[in-house]
Amino acid sequence: MSKQLNPEDVAAHARELVGESTIPDLELLCSLTVTGNNEAIAEEDFTDAQRLHREAYGSAIEGGWSKSQLRALGIRTPSRPVRFTIVEPGASGSSAIHAVG
Fold it and tell me: Where on the tree of life does the source sit, at the highest rank (predicted)?
């Protein structure tokens, strides 16, 4: 499991880093911390689900089911593992998350 950041600790560190008088809106920083934690959890859950699906699919094949039979039953083949990368903001100022793999 990835390290979860505590929004209050991040805010305290931000105060130390930029100084109390010049610090931007801390609520934005806390929101970013929480959503970043949620994203990390979702990525781990997604990765685990992919792994479990690959294992179960492999077990079904080893157990005598053919790929065509599984496909005919509507069972999808496992997807390749996916890594996520964040593309930094460009000229438009918006960033994006891209699946790689």
Answer: Bacteria
